[in-house]
Amino acid sequence: MSCADSWPPQRGQPTDHPSSPSGSDRESGPGAARGPRARRSRIRGVTASVLVVCSGNICRSPVVEAMLRGRLAGSALPSEVSSAGTIDWNARPMADNSALVLTEYGIDAPAHRSRKLTADLLRAADLVIGMSREHHWAIDALAADALPRTFLLGELVRLGEAFGPRRALPLADWVAGVDARRPANRLARPGDELDDPMGEPIESFRVMGARADDLTTRLAALLTT
Prior knowledge:
9 helices; alpha/beta; 4-stranded parallel beta sheet
């Protein structure tokens, strides 16, 4: 039996996840434009809001966003997948090589403009997925209350597979169970990172794309089975 089969603990049982945010914590902070809908999803399970974060929001996060959105579309987990970057690059389009990688996987590169990560976006998200440990630190500085539901992509898949598939669990409970498997400082391993191909030849983008393809496929399976 996986950990997911017995999470959350029954009333009166101890829990090994004292750091899970309470309902009141989840509702705190000003709402972004998509905030009300996303906050309802954390409480009522209407539509899951997944936010993918990288540095410039032009290379890695648009690829992961498009791949994950396609794999969750029409699944048992209604979702809204979006992305943002820790650096404000003034609404730049997706990097040409990232768009090319998507087409090589049979995914139409969406019309995309980079946007800056904000505390409102973080607080509105049910699940936040970073690419590198520096993104974890940036998220901590912007909205520390989002950390219990913030993971690096590789970390989320690694710990999620150890915890077990979501099955019928509400997304918030599954995320809390995966979070409980982390060390107290919530620092991911270097191997959990998705390397930034910015400024590198197309081969580096293809390496990034292959890993993103593998990890988003495994993550979608965890979230929808």
